[in-house]
Sequence to fold (104 residues):
Amino acid sequence: MPSEPSSGLSHTSPLRHWDGALPIVMSIVVLLMVAVEVWKHGLHAPHHDEGTADHIAMLLMFGQVPIMFWFSAPGRRRIREILPTLALQLSLWVTTFALAVALT
Fold:
């Protein structure tokens, strides 16, 4: 049986790679944390000192940035393959950032 030559590129979805999925998971965790805080305190929660949850959310939000840069590094994959995943990553990041600013 003749085998097909390997091109060296994986033809799996970019979402199946750690650097494609991790920022999305991190954003979803932050959105869930925001939802729990809104559920517990309402939209007009009293201002408080930042707690552990706030620090974890900040680490998750800003920890995504280098991972997204790594994901979109030039020469790693073709842009058509990663563009939908990158757009999802960026839109979730912007959403979490906008909610953090709006609710504080």
In short: Residues 14-41+51-102 form one domain. The CA atoms of residues 14 and 81 lie 7 Å apart. The two ends are 63 Å apart (CA to CA).
